[in-house]
Known about the structure:
Radius of gyration: 17 Å
Helix content: 10-25%
Number of helices: 4
Distance between the termini: 13 Å
Low-confidence stretches: none
Amino acid sequence: MALTREQMAQRVARELKDGYYVNLGIGIPTLVANYVPEGMQVMLQSENGLLGMGAFPTEDEVDADMINAGKQTVTAVKGASIFSSAESFAMIRGGHVDLTVLGAFEVDVQGNIASWMVPGKLVKGMGGAMDLVAGAENIIVTMTHASKDGESKLLESCSLPLTGAGCIRKVLTDLAYLEIENGAFILRETAPGVSIAEIAEKTAGRLIVPDDVVEMTF
């Protein structure tokens, strides 16, 4: 069974480490803020100028002026800092973000990512994604494995305009966790109840299945 958005966020949260500065892109990545392990000190960064995002607010906590880069209302943790977007991008471009979590339309076997434009459709645009993929070494892409029409999003070569080239090494989909190495997707984990055959069928790019693939647990 495919992972829910919340389960995808939970799985990504396992990649967090104490003391990390982390940037969460719009969409599924923002949900990771709700699953930071208890007792772990992680500072979530937003390119609009907030370091120290907390979980999404309850109805009583909503502050319309406290938003993330996707215009969603957020909370701030103790010790948070608010600054200009120019300073925020200096932090990103300077390589001071330890982990970046991004959504995407497509990823390919060369580690290319397309996440900002679909010709003929209205999307939110590039935002800070180009800076994030250029300034971060540790990036996780989280996305559905295939489109609603069943077309694979894990490709031999991206068909949409690129956000960044050769920058992606880790992909978490609703079906699997994969790493990108030597021009192939390496299957590392399957979603609970999802077969390797289904993953292979929905992966258009070259797929390698090692002997030690494990099933995710929640």
